[in-house]
């Protein structure tokens, strides 16, 4: 199947990947017209890898760009490199986490050139320490896992850091982009409203975590707060929810609102 075009020099191939439900695919965004930079080739199985290779037929692959190190973003990078010889580009933190060689390290202010214009590299930690976005022609932003067109963004410490995440979201909002191109789900065409919603949602969840600690009125670990904050989620999700609660607690701790002792987290007096 041919890549779906969004703009001249910008198209996408959704690739089936081992991602978190409800998402089932990771978007391989293609930057360029005849020679392309492939973002996040994610297929870890041969059939999705073949599918991407088929979609790339007739194009030359200049580079493979990884937004961050999660398996549902990097799974097909080595396979695509074997097929094309293209270099793999990523942040140093990402390079330190993967078990293959990253050929070129990228960071804030670097530029990725294509035959359809330049894309500026933004370092946006929060979901992962080495997370990169790309801002390109027409105000399109390759957003990786900063936002999702499908499902939610999970923050898992220590890679996940809520304070960094909110700072990065605010930064993306200030860019005045025209569309966000997420790794999962469709492109998002009202970036400012969406990013405001994401930021407000995290702030309101933080207030909920604070209220739950107050309600419990004893030192607590994240798991003990989960049923208060998320009364409707099934028990098997509690451990992953506890990681989210931990992010909020750590952020409150950074702000001096919460302290941590061997007994658990408590509100500062
Ligand atoms: Zn991720």
Describe the protein's architecture and organization.
The structure is a single chain. This protein has helices at 46-55, 71-74, 77-84, 92-97, 162-174, 191-216, 222-229, 238-254; strands at residues 4-7, 10-16, 25-31, 35-39, 60-65, 88-90, 104-105, 111-114, 117-123, 132-135, 140-144, 179-182, 258-261, 264-267. Helix 5 links the parallel strand 11 (140-144) and strand 12 (179-182). It is an alpha/beta fold and 269 residues long. 34% of the residues lie in helices and 25% in strands. The termini are far apart. Helix 6 (191-216) crosses helix 8 (238-254). It contains 8 helices and 14 strands. The relative contact order is 0.11. The mean pLDDT is 95. It has 2 domains: 4-189, 4-Layer Sandwich (Metallo-beta-lactamase, Chain A), CATH 3.60.15; 200-267, Arc Repressor Mutant, subunit A, CATH 1.10.10. The longest helix has 26 residues, at 191-216. A 7-stranded mixed beta sheet has the order 1-2-3-4-5-6-7. Zinc ion (ZN) binds next to loops.
Keywords:
binds zinc ion, alpha/beta, 14 strands, Metallo-beta-lactamase, Chain A, Arc Repressor Mutant, subunit A, 269 residues, 8 helices, 5-stranded mixed sheet
Brief synopsis:
The chain is α/β, with parallel strands linked by helices and 269 residues long.
The backbone outline, from C-alpha atoms, is: elongated
Query: Strand order of the main beta sheet, please?
Result: 1-2-3-4-5-6-7
Oligomer: single chain
Structural class designation:
alpha/beta
Distance between the termini: 60 Å
CATH class of the largest domain: Alpha Beta
Quantity of strands, as a count: 14
SSE run: EEEEHEHHEHEEEEEHEHHHEE
Low-confidence stretches: none
CATH level-four homologous superfamily name of the largest domain: Ribonuclease Z/Hydroxyacylglutathione hydrolase-like
**On the 0-100 scale, what is the average pLDDT?**
95
